[in-house]
Amino acid sequence: TEKVCHLSLCPLGTAAAPEQELLCIFGTGDLGRSLGQRLLQTGYRVVYGSRRPHSCGPLPERAQVMSHAAAAQSANLVFICIHRENYDFLETLAPELKGKVLVDVSNNVEKNLYPEANAEYLQRLIPGAHVVKAFNTLSAWALQNGPSDANRQVYLCGNNAEAKQAVSVVATKLGFTVLDRGSVSAAKELEDFPLQLFPEWRLPLRLAVGLTAFFFFYLLIRDIISVYIKEKKDISFRIMVSLANKVFPIVSLIMLSLCYLPGVIAAFLQLYRGTKYKRFPDWLDRWMLCRKQLGLLALGFAFLHVLYTLIIPIRYYVRFRLSAITVSEVRDSLTAGESLCLMQ
Ligand SMILES: NC(=O)C1=CN([C@@H]2O[C@H](COP(=O)(O)OP(=O)(O)OC[C@H]3O[C@@H](n4cnc5c(N)ncnc54)[C@H](OP(=O)(O)O)[C@@H]3O)[C@@H](O)[C@H]2O)C=CC1
Ligand SMILES: [Fe+3]
């Protein structure tokens, strides 16, 4: 109530800004800098903890830099923007970090590099702190530029509900949507996220490549190589357009049917079982989950088919024009020759 009275008594514009919360960032690297800049823009105060407070690279204006211990003491929330390989020194800061919320943003370069998740390791190093895994699925670039449609979500997990709440308040203020994934045992999963490149596309893409290769070679043997062997006719110029244009619609239709088939199978399965409250078998589950990708790929192949179909008449037209020109020129020269003969 004190704040409200204070604000309402003040004339417009001179209201004292409420004390901004101070947040701490360990590490003055790429991510630390981007995160700090974003936090400052959102209205937080930022203090960096660094090994070399006086000689670190360029930092956002208005940010303070101090030693790790001093920085840790001044804030309740500490973002650890340091690679996991260098975490070990944090153990010596355990007294300063006791009771603080530590945000682990780290990623690994490959899966299963370490037996435990980075966040669990951090928690083991500093048992007295509350570790929250968050922000690791964002890039420094995305953080600096603020949330966009593709980068809206911040996944977080941790054992302490209050600590998670504190982090999600910050994330929300930064403009992100928070998705709570549960306790720190989910950290491993979160750390694997950035290492999966469009996982749901992998199977459909492999399928598309496989089908394309299969039908390409099948048609190559059937339409071109066999003609060459039987009739000694070389029609290999057809490979680029005509043959390809036979492969595209076939693959497109197969992918389209694969997109709709699992739904039908699932419906029959439900009818057969007499209930829809039972899990589908794993293969069907996986198949159902990539229907969107299968459909989009089918659309892509259909589009290629349209494109190639439009190219073929253009090619014939050019050939027709060329031969028409040749014929008329031959005719002209012939008539010229005839008239020459007549004159003689
Ligand atoms: N860059 C990105 O896009 C993303 C990065 N991350 C994670 O954020 C973390 C930091 O990444 P990033 O900023 O790119 O890395 P950088 O290499 O740019 O920065 C790491 C910082 O850690 C500190 N540091 C380095 N070595 C040690 C050490 N031996 N002891 C103590 N501190 C050390 C340094 O700060 P100082 O000199 O001030 O001590 C350094 O600036 C990583 O865990 C990474 O996985 C997560 C998502 C995206
Ligand atoms: Fe067609």
UniProtKB/TrEMBL annotation:
GO MF annotations, alphabetized: cupric reductase (NADH) activity; ferric-chelate reductase (NADPH) activity; metal ion binding
Cofactor requirement: FAD
Gene3D superfamilies: NAD(P)-binding Rossmann-like Domain
One Gene Ontology term from the biological process aspect of the record: iron ion transport
Domain Pyrroline-5-carboxylate reductase catalytic N-terminal: 24-108
Membrane topology qualifier: Multi-pass membrane protein
Swiss-Prot/TrEMBL keywords: Endosome, FAD, Flavoprotein, Ion transport, Iron, Iron transport, Membrane, Metal-binding, Oxidoreductase, Transmembrane, Transmembrane helix, Transport
Catalytic activity: 2 Fe(2+) + NADP(+) + H(+) = 2 Fe(3+) + NADPH; 2 Cu(+) + NADP(+) + H(+) = 2 Cu(2+) + NADPH
Pfam short name (any one): F420_oxidored
Chief place of localization: membrane
Top-level division of the source organism's lineage: Eukaryota
Transmembrane segments: 207-229, 250-273, 293-318
Gene Ontology cellular-component annotations: endosome membrane; plasma membrane
UniProt subcellular location: Endomembrane system; Endosome membrane
Similarity comment: family membership: Belongs to the STEAP family.
Name under which the protein is recorded: Pyrroline-5-carboxylate reductase catalytic N-terminal domain-containing protein
Species of origin: Anabas testudineus (Climbing perch)
